Amino acid sequence: MDSRLLRYFVTVYDCQGISSAAERLHISQPAITRSIHNLEQDLGVELFERKPNGMIPTRYADVLARRVRLMEMEYRHALAEIDSVRGGTQGIIRIGAGPLWYSKILPKLISSFQDEWPGVRIRLIGGVLNTLLPAMEAGKFDIMCASLDFPKRPGLVVEPLMHVKHSIIASANHPEAKKLISVPHDLAQSPWVVLADDDVGSSRIWSYFSSHGCRPPTISVETSEPELIFDMVARGLHLAHVPDLLLRDRGTEGIVKLRIEGPFWETSAGLVYRSGETQLPYVKRFVEAIQELKLE
Q1: Architecture of 3-63 per CATH?
Q2: Residues of the chain with CATH 3.40.190.10
Q3: Which residues contact 232 (CB under 8 A, 6 or more apart)?
């Protein structure tokens, strides 16, 4: 099969439209339309629903896009491995990381790693578990560093490295901060700020409150930035939950951990990668560098 057809297909899939895909690829719209039609003819399935407002991927397109990205990744790793055999030290490591990792753990590690491997470029993408894991499965990342609060996935190696405890935080001026113990019913009366798209974290909020027989709190702010969570909490009205490690060695003056009934949320965190992917020297070394960290 012509690899150009697959490249055009992935671009249309990402753009969900012919015109924007043509602009990105710098080719004509009719050329892309013909390519998609030829690919559908080869496969015997419809890859897109043609709508007035764009191209909507079908489930067949979802499958193909995932596999094409894995093919692209394998090709990229093949080139890197060939370069490695020739004694090369250049390449790229694509990392998907949760907030704890990209804001506290990885920056220092990446800096020291690139002292050892200056020719290796790091592409670090932040997210939450339910955005990172699908991207990892689709081949967009070589390594994922995040919470491991998910069922086993075929083809992925999961390596726990630390235990993460989440605590509920508030401003020191918040009424709950003055209590010896904050009960769930009272905690539910305050507005909460959470990470956007963090379905796992939001479900843990629901589980904690429902296990104590009360309705969950109102989520009033969602953000992709952990710093905004601290800022909103420090202003006095909002509550939030964060990993305890994020509270260490940072300027959280005016923010306190609340004493609550029972544990809120505890989970393991660590590495996720595909079998055999650490064979590239620089990827293997980066994984080893993470494994050598004292994370507890």
Answers
A1: Orthogonal Bundle (1.10)
A2: 66-162+268-291
A3: 193, 221, 223, 238, 240
**Which pLDDT tens digit goes with each residue over 210-248?**
999 999 999 999 998 888 999 999 998 999 999 998 887
Alpha helices in the chain (DSSP H): 3-15, 18-25, 29-43, 59-85, 99-100, 106-116, 129-137, 184-187, 199-211, 226-234, 244-247, 281-291
Six token digits for residue 106 = 């990885």
| Homologous superfamily of domain range 66-162+268-291 | Periplasmic binding protein-like II (3.40.190.10)
Task: Give 203-209 contacts, CB < 8 A, sequence gap 24+.
Answer: 204/166, 204/241, 204/264, 204/265, 205/241, 208/184, 208/262, 208/264, 208/265, 209/184
pLDDT tens digits for 60-78? 999 898 888 888 777 776 7
DSSP, collapsed to helix, strand or coil, labels residue 247 as helix
d(CA 57, CA 35): 15
- pTM listed for this prediction: 0.71
Separation of alpha carbons 100 and 79, rounded Å: 32
**C-alpha neighbours within 13 Å on the C-beta side of residue 67:** 8
- Could you give the residue range(s) of every CATH 3.40.190.290 domain in the chain? 163-267
Given the DSSP bridges, would you call strands 192-195 and 219-223 parallel, antiparallel or unpaired?
Answer: parallel
User: Which residues pair with residue 79 across a beta bridge?
Assistant: none
CATH of 163-267, one of 3.40.980.20, 3.10.20.30, 3.10.180.10, 3.40.190.290: 3.40.190.290
Enumerate residues 6+ apart whose C-beta is below 8 A from 246.
Answer: 99, 100, 103, 104, 226
Do strands 265-274 and 143-147 pair parallel, antiparallel, or not at all (unpaired)?
A: antiparallel
